């Protein structure tokens, strides 16, 4: 038998109360399910990497079709968002998210997923106060703080530019 | 080669965020906000754009790329229009991403039923 493992039987049969406490703590620690950090990280790496690679594939495709780099990048975003919304509607993205963790949250598809999932989930609460309000539940803060932080940074850039520093 | 770069850089950003998430238990919404703000700051420091030039979609697809786009849009608008650009460039640059997410999601709400229950 594994010497380091403590069974509940050991805990109960231990007479010395101090030792029993120690054993009990060890037992609780043993049976508490722990996140497998390494595995989670690897999954996030692969899922996130694959989503970015698919994005790169679309950018390359659109550039081959004769678009410039910037426009191709924008169509790539449109494509990824569309794919993410459809996968969200089909309830596939949530399954992917369970597996890929941050790998599905970090890419732009995670942003699109948060918008689409809210729109679909809250449509029973009405067009305005259901979909209209709730569609911004997660993307609203992202837009607010994104716009605000870049506005602050933009102000800094403007004044540095006026001062002739940049 | 650009596929390998996109895969590794995109994967590394996601892996780093996964480690951060596992250690802080922050919800995805907060993670997205942090990433966008971080992207804007890295963009302003001139670090993010070279990364996009090197890694392509590996750096532009993660939400930090979205933050960088916001800052870049504001900077370009300032260079073009002066002070009004501070208020103009952010939404201009992010228009495609935000519009498509909202429009497609709204259409999706007609088509799909909630499977949450």
From TrEMBL, chain A:
The chain crosses the membrane at residues 44-62, 74-93, 99-120, 132-160. InterPro entries: Spore_V_AC, SpoVA. The keyword Transmembrane helix applies. Keywords: Membrane, Transmembrane, Transmembrane helix. The keyword Transmembrane helix applies. This is Stage V sporulation protein AC. It comes from Anaeromicropila populeti.
From TrEMBL, chain B:
The keyword Nucleus does not apply. NCBIfam families: spore_V_AE (TIGR02839). It comes from Anaeromicropila populeti. Keywords: Membrane, Transmembrane, Transmembrane helix. This is Stage V sporulation protein AE. It comes from the Bacteria. The keyword Transmembrane applies. The chain crosses the membrane at residues 31-48, 91-112.
């Amino acid at each position: 038998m594994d010497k380091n493992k403590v069974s509940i039987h050991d805990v109960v049969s231990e007479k010395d109360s101090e030792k029993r406490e120690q054993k009990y703590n060890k037992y609780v620690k043993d049976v508490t399910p722990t996140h497998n950090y390494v595995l989670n990280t690897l999954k996030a790496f692969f899922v996130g990497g694959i989503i970015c690679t698919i994005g790169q594939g679309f950018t390359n495709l659109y550039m081959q079709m004769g678009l410039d780099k910037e426009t191709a990048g924008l169509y790539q975003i449109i494509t990824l968002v569309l794919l993410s919304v459809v996968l969200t509607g089909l309830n596939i993205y949530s399954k992917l998210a369970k597996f890929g963790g941050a790998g599905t949250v970090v890419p732009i598809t995670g942003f699109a997923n948060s918008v689409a999932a809210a729109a679909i989930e809250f449509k029973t609460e009405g067009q305005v106060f259901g979909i209209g309000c709730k569609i911004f539940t997660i993307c609203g803060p992202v837009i607010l703080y994104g716009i605000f932080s870049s506005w602050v940074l933009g102000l800094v850039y403007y004044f540095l530019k006026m001062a002739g520093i940049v | 080669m650009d596929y390998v770069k996109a895969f590794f850089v995109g994967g590394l950003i996601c892996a780093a965020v996964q480690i951060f998430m596992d250690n802080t238990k922050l919800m995805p919404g907060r993670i997205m906000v942090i990433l966008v703000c971080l992207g804007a700051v890295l963009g302003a420091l001139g670090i993010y754009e070279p990364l996009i030039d090197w890694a392509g979609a590996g750096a532009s697809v993660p939400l930090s790329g979205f933050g960088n786009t916001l800052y870049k849009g504001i900077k370009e608008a300032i260079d073009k229009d002066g002070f009004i650009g501070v208020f103009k460039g952010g939404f201009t640059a992010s228009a495609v991403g935000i519009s498509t997410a909202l429009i497609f999601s709204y259409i999706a709400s007609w088509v799909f039923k909630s499977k949450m229950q």
